[in-house]
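Budget justification note: compute hours in this period were largely spent on complex prediction jobs such as the one shown. Inputs:
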Amino acid sequence: MLKLLHRWKRLLFGSPEYKYLYRNLSKHHNVVKKSFHHTHKHAKKLLNKHSIKLENLRHAGVKAAAGAALATSMFVAPAYSHDTKSVNLQKSLTAEVPSAPAEKIKAGPENPNKQLFTQEQFAAQIRDIMSPSHTREGKLSGDQLSQIQKMVKDQFDINVDSKTTAGFGLLDDYGFAGAEQHIPTHVGDSASQHVNKDEPLAIITGLTGGRGAWGYAPKAEEKWYVVAQTFRSPDFGTPATKGLAGQRYIVIQIPSERNGNHFFIGLGGIWDAGPGVSTGKVFGLSPEYWYHLGETAGSSRKDQIIMLPVTDSGIDASQLGPLGFK
Amino acid sequence: MSQYFYSHLVPLDEAVALLDARQLTDEEKEDLINLIHSIFHHRILDHILKNTPKSEHARIIKMISADPSDFGIIVHVKTLSPDIDLQLQDLGKSIYYEVSLLLNR
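Corresponding output:
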């Protein structure tokens, strides 16, 4: 208790540098901690049972380590310690660290039209359009679809529909999306190669064991890949399925009380099929999306979105990601 | 220098050393070190639990409870997930990078 009081005192009266660093680390720490407890609910009980606090995992000394080190060396990969490799790593990583990586809202595809709505107005319209839908997932009504099509066209000059130009439609146009891991882009790919220096708070959730449903995702597109239950579509297995790899989709977060009326809109390419039916989610989004979906959605890693295929061709990898508002 | 069962696989001390150049009191530094350690603990254990059978989680957590510095924990986990040490090395670099970005924003 006394320690806690002292820390509060430091947070109130400490140096600006300390307060700044504490705020940055603490925010990230909270996201990591919430994600852990959300993923491993059973582990929380076990940790409590053994009175383990990961925030304060006290080391029991090095004697056990010294004794086990020799035996372990036969099984464990080369030590990561103060060797040349680690020093080089530190230098190279430090050199790459940007001084102030700000959140980058990228402009959408070239839009000759003047944008009609501010982000707040656009979000409010989406909320109104979706308010009659009370189910977790489903198809948009004709009226809902046409309103969204018009808004997206007017605002961003992008054409969307409930089916691709080849005629492939998903079972659901809206529903819950979950957080996906990164997917490999080449042989020997690793999680560390997916660290995003522009968005350091984007959670690094690791790399999936296997490739995406269409093989390795192109490196330039993996950051903004989306996942959908293509296998549940009534069009699955028909000729309309061909050419789905990398199909562009628009991702529209549905503002609600649940997510604090947060709003995001962006473009992504589909590079994997899922999530499993038992998850109760119908879409999946790459780790980078969750940084932009807001802290509320990010901590629970589940939020309701609309996902519709883009029927325009020629949208390249550089145009994927968040769509900007002027 | 703290010793945890995974310390030899990840650049935890290197991450803490990023604070050396900062003008901080000992108490301030300790607060920040605790946060960095906790980020590593959560991420490492998260990865281990995701890559081992649920039936083994009670045993793994019990081993950590008995001695968080016991390298035998990694040896045991390796019997369940043979390349876990290589995965943790990879993950450790990612965490280091995240921390370095947070400290240099």
